[in-house]
Amino acid sequence: MCQYLYIQEIIGTFATEIRRRAVMKTVNQIIGENLKKIRELSGFTQEQVAQSIKIERSTYSNYEGGTREIPYTILEDISNLFGCEPFILFEDNVQTNNEIMATAFRISNLGENDLKEIAAFKDIVKSYLKMERIAQNEAE
């Protein structure tokens, strides 16, 4: 009887781990789909994004494909480049898709310095909007 309970516990633990991994894969896929969508709308290549955030193109490709979990620091770098809040990349709904499209900035023939300047400007705008939201919340 004791062996049976032990086996049941192992099976339960294994099933929990499988479910956890399935959820993570779903989250990774959502982030990946959003990364790809905003990158394409912005006119960036995977290579340009990877160079801008100083990672390998293959690593970035794995993030977009949802096959690799993305560290939050990299997620912040990418969201700064695209000028969006990191949480938007976790969402999987129409409203979020509209926000992603609104932040997209189409580029053509821009160099790495241009991309960095655009990212810095987007960061300034993002900070201003965040301060404006805080001021509105305090006023209420």
From TrEMBL:
Ranges where the HTH cro/C1-type domain occurs: 35-90
Keyword Nucleotidyltransferase recorded: no
GO MF annotations, alphabetized: DNA binding
UniProt keyword annotations, A-Z: DNA-binding
Name this protein carries in UniProt: Helix-turn-helix domain-containing protein
